[in-house]
């Protein structure tokens, strides 16, 4: 029998986190959400890997988001510019030529933000040797895999990994069986899952089974604009391309915002539920990047993941609206809009 896993929100001091990402439209919304929850998260830094966008573009996009959120105090570190082994394939066809929905926001100048000299790997190593932090993994796992290979002790000090990636029963989004983050660098994902297994820990796999249900619809976007014109207009600017992409390829009215769900789940475990299982990532052939979930325990192996399969959509959007829009009360109309 599958073991159901649900956890309550932690209390006490804000959770120290590193956001590892590849901005990207939904990465940007996830960063915005995380920065809107100062009582829940203390964002130690943002690390960038090549994924949705080339690493330099992802770095610039992260700064654009921080500037909009008036949080240029958060350090951003550039990481891997290519997968460990396979050729790099970006997702600019999904996220637009600038990686931010072709909003073409102005770059953050050097007078506004002093570029970090440390690499993402150096920052992760130094931070984890100083304190245990959680990793919110929103992109390919290249930076994390390099950490596991270069400094296993630091990797072992990670408090938890919440990964937007993979799929179980849902179909893939870049092949019939693979989700993009794991497909982009399957070797890195395989290393991270294996090392997590060796340590006897669990990766929280916030995969397409749950993220596909988090759809920002035109009605929800209009509601955002009504509640907070500034944030609503910004969200519209970076998601318009995303809306068009989803309609063309999936005939979906709205856009799936995968990454904010990982942030929300990291803040409130009751938003999603699932089961513990052993997971491995395929690195070759027609199923490259597939997350193989041993739900029936064929391998008789201890779990190395929490595979999420159910999501409370209304609870997510309640958190998303109240936190991102900094509302004191729960918004009405969500029952009809979600």
Question: Outline of this structure?
Answer:
This protein has 338 residues and is of the alpha/beta class. The protein is built from 14 helices and 13 strands. The chain is globular.
Let me know the number of strands: 13
CATH class: Alpha Beta
DSSP helical segment count: 14
Strand order in space, largest sheet: 1-10-13-7-6-5-2-3-4
Assigned CATH superfamily: Ribonucleoside hydrolase-like
* Domain count: 1
Structural class: alpha/beta
Could you tell me the mean pLDDT?
94
Q: If classified by CATH, what would the architecture be?
A: Alpha-Beta Complex
Radius of gyration: 18 Å
Low-pLDDT stretches = 1-10
Helix content: 25-40%
Question: Any overview of this molecule?
Answer:
The chain has one domain: Alpha-Beta Complex (Inosine-uridine Nucleoside N-ribohydrolase, Chain A). 40% of the residues lie in helices and 16% in strands. It is built from 14 helices and 13 strands. The chain has helices at residues 25-35, 55-68, 92-95, 120-130, 142-150, 152-156, 180-184, 186-198, 208-211, 218-227, 229-250, 258-267, 313-324, 334-337, and strands spanning 4-5, 15-21, 41-48, 76-78, 134-137, 161-164, 203-206, 215-216, 255-256, 272-277, 279-281, 291-293, 305-311. Strands 1-10-13-7-6-5-2-3-4 form a nine-stranded mixed sheet, sandwiched between helices. A two-stranded antiparallel sheet has the order 8-9.
